[in-house]
Amino acid sequence: MDIAVRREILPLVRRAQRVLIIAHIAPDGDCIGSLLALGQALRELGKQVVLACADQVPPQYSFLPGHEVITRCPAGSFQLLMSVDCSDIQRMGPAYRPAAFAHLPVINIDHHMTNVLFGTVNWVDTRSASTAELIYDLIEEMAVPISADVALCLLTGIVTDTRCFRTSNTTTRTMRVATRLMEAGASLDLITEQVLNRRPLGMIRLWGEALKTLRLRNRVIWVDITQAMLEQTGVEEGDLSGGLSSFLVAAHEADVSAVFTETTRNEVEVSLRSVPGVDVSEAAVQLGGGGHPQASGCTVGGTLQEARQRVLAVLDLSLARQRARK
Predict the structure, then answer these.
(1) CB neighbours of 68 closer than 8 A, spacing ≥ 6?
(2) Intrachain domains 3-196 and 201-325 with the same fold
(3) Rounded to the nearest 5°, which phi and psi values hold at 49?
(4) What does DSSP say about strands 18-23 and 48-52: parallel, antiparallel, or unpaired?
(5) What average pLDDT does the structure give for the chain?
(6) What residue ranges do the domains of the chain occupy?
(7) What is the pLDDT at residue 44?
(8) Residue 110's Cα: distance from chain center in Å?
(9) What backbone torsions phi and psi does residue 262 show, to the nearest 5 degrees?
(10) Measured between alpha carbons, how far is 67 from 51 in angstroms, rounded to an integer?
(11) What local confidence, expressed as pLDDT, does residue 196 receive?
(12) What percent of the chain has pLDDT over 70?
């Protein structure tokens, strides 16, 4: 941890007795794992902690200890707000209520290159493969022993954000932290089985319906997920993750994949993935979202057709610029 950041973060944490920690909407393993691990560590310091996420925890992460205490609507008074894995305030969704929380100091902990530095203190390390790695450093700085439960949550974050150590931002440091977490009791076998190898039957059916809409153009492959599909298969919006977009980008004929999910809010959630050397974060930022070069997302207003047309147009221009630079 940077010395300057340490000097800012640790005093805020020490002074606060009641702490609210918020993860991003459409949660993935990194944000849920980081949220749970940080919450447990702060409780070890005697803090009263509320964990919040606007969307429900996807079923594949229900094996993580403490997930049941995450609330979608945090209430009460707090002395400190900590955000994990959120590139901007909007990513916290309705769990963040400005009228109630705008006065709080905010510690923004993230690793996305598209982070807009919205916190009172911003600890954004784009060299880190996951936010979980940063939470590991913070727990070490707070001198809290890493239990087997905390290790399991953190290793889940690392495994999911690196696609089991397969992404280009996986470093030797990532591997060292993962080793230490396994030594602390985290089971890599359990994580890969629950998160990467298993899917609820409803999700498999949803993928089947979505794949019927599959299209490919200009090396961009995409599918639609409608509200009718969600209702038919019994999958809720908050249960979705990047699994389908990662599956699609494995096609030899594609450089980029997109999954367009229709919501009940007249908005469309967009999940983007790309092959190494192709940056989808550029397009995501233009559309009001963010993320990593190979894994990004955004929320676009309008109907499914309107959102799809807008996103594909932005992607086409972004990819053309990238090809011209090569």
Answers:
(1) none
(2) no
(3) -125, 135
(4) parallel
(5) 94
(6) 3-196, 201-325
(7) 97
(8) 10
(9) -70, 135
(10) 9
(11) 87
(12) 98
User: Minimal CA–CA distance to 121: which of 6, 290, 291?
Assistant: 6
Neighbour order of strands in the sheet with 80-84: 48-52, 18-23, 80-84, 106-110, 121-124
| Positive/negative CA dihedral, 198, 188, 167, 22 | positive
Structure tokens of 194?
């629950």
Residue of 222, 219, 251, 225 whose CA lies nearest to 316: 219
What amino acid occupies position 202? G
Q: How many residues can be counted in the chain?
A: 326
Q: What is the pLDDT of residue 6?
A: 77
Using the predicted structure, report yes or no on whether residue 12 has a pLDDT greater than 90: yes
* pLDDT interval class at 241 (50, 70, 90): low
pLDDT in tens, 88-118: 999 999 999 999 999 999 999 999 988 999 9
Topology (CATH level 3) of domain 3-196: inorganic pyrophosphatase (n-terminal core) (3.90.1640)
Location of structure tokens 């008074």? 77
Q: Residue 75 is which amino acid? A: A
- With a CB cutoff of 8 Å and minimum separation 6, the contacts of 31 are 23, 24, 53, 84, 85, 86, 131, 157
CATH number of 201-325: 3.10.310.30
Work out the end-to-end distance of the chain between its first and last CA atoms, rounded to an integer number of angstroms: 35
Torsion sign across C-alpha atoms 198, 199, 204, 205: positive
